[in-house]
Write a structure and sequence with these properties.
The chain is α+β, with helices and mostly antiparallel strands and about 230 residues long. The chain is about 20% helix and about 25% strand.
Length: about 230
C-alpha cells in the first residue's frame, strides 16, 4: 500500500516473535520498503499479561526526505526518558498511535510538540460496540448491561499539532475520518530557537540520560562472541 500510493506508512501491529507477542509499530517508505519497527517498551496495565516488553534496540528515528520519523505507542508517550531518547535522535515527525480518547490526551500531545520542537501526529481508533464480537464472547468491563450496537466505545480524537503547539487538524470525534495537514519543517527551527531540550536548553553536567540501545537477550552463547572476535582479527 505504501509503494502503491507513494506514502510513508506508520502502522500498529501485534508482532509475534517465537512465543511472545509485542505491541509494535512498523515503518515503510514511499517505495514500499520496510524500514524497521518500534516495540512498546512498557505495556499498559493488563497489557502486561499479554505483551512482552520492548528494549532499547527498537527506539528508531528514521531519516527520510520528508523528515525524521519515529513513534511511541499510547501511554509510553508519558515516559519522559523515552521522549528524551527520541528528541536526542532528532525526531521531527513524532507519531503517537493511541487508544486514549480522553481530553487530557490532547494536552499530552500539545506538550510533546512544544517540548520536542516537533510535529506530533496522534492517530486513535473510532469504534462502536458493533465492531466487536457479541457477548458473551466479548464483554466490556464496567458495563452492567449489553451496549446498543451503535454505542461509541472509543471516540477517536486523532490530531496533528505543530512544534509551536498549534492544532493543525483535529481532534476528530465525529466518526471514522481522514485528517491531514501541510507540515512546514521550518517551524522546527523556529521552535528550537526558543527551546531545544537536547541542545542549548539542556544541562548535561547536572542532568543526563544513558540509553542502553543494544538488544537484551535471555541467553547469550560465548561461541557467538568468539566468532565476532575472530572476524575482527
Amino acid at each position: 500500500m505504501a509503494g502503491k500510493y507513494k506514502v510513508y506508512l506508520v502502522m500498529g501491529v501485534i508482532e509475534r516473535d517465537g512465543y511472545t507477542l509485542y505491541c509494535t509499530v512498523l515503518f515503510f517508505d514511499s517505495q514500499g520498503r520496510y524500514l524497521g519497527k518500534h516495540r512498546k517498551v512498557m505495556p499498559t496495565a493488563l497489557e502486561r499479561v499479554i505483551w512482552g516488553f520492548g528494549d532499547g534496540s527498537t527506539i528508531p528515528v528514521f531519516e527520510t526526505p520528508i523528515g525524521k520519523i519515529g513513534a511511541a505507542i499510547c501511554w509510553e508517550n508519558k515516559m519522559p526518558l523515552l521522549r528524551m531518547a527520541m528528541y536526542a535522535k532528532g525526531i521531527e515527525i513524532y507519531c503517537a498511535p493511541t487508544a486514549d480518547s480522553r481530553d487530557v490526551w490532547q494536552a499530552s500531545m500539545t506538550h510533546i510538540a512544544l517540548e520536542g520542537g516537533c510535529f506530533v501526529l496522534s492517530a486513535n481508533q473510532f469504534c462502536q460496540r458493533k465492531d466487536y464480537p457479541p457477548p458473551p464472547e466479548y464483554l466490556f468491563l464496567g458495563t452492567e448491561e449489553d451496549l446498543p450496537p451503535d454505542s461509541v466505545v472509543c471516540a477517536g480524537g486523532s490530531v496533528i499539532i505543530s512544534p509551536s503547539g498549534t492544532v493543525l487538524a483535529g481532534p476528530n470525534y465525529e466518526g471514522e475520518a481522514l485528517i491531514s495537514a501541510d507540515l512546514d519543517l521550518g517551524e522546527i527551527a523556529r521552535a528550537k530557537f526558543d527551546f531545544d531540550v537536547v541542545g542549548h536548553y539542556s544541562r548535561p553536567e547536572v542532568l543526563s540520560l544513558v540509553v542502553r540501545d543494544h538488544p537484551t537477550r535471555p541467553v547469550t552463547f560465548t561461541s557467538e562472541s568468539e566468532k565476532g572476535e575472530g572476524t575482527q582479527k
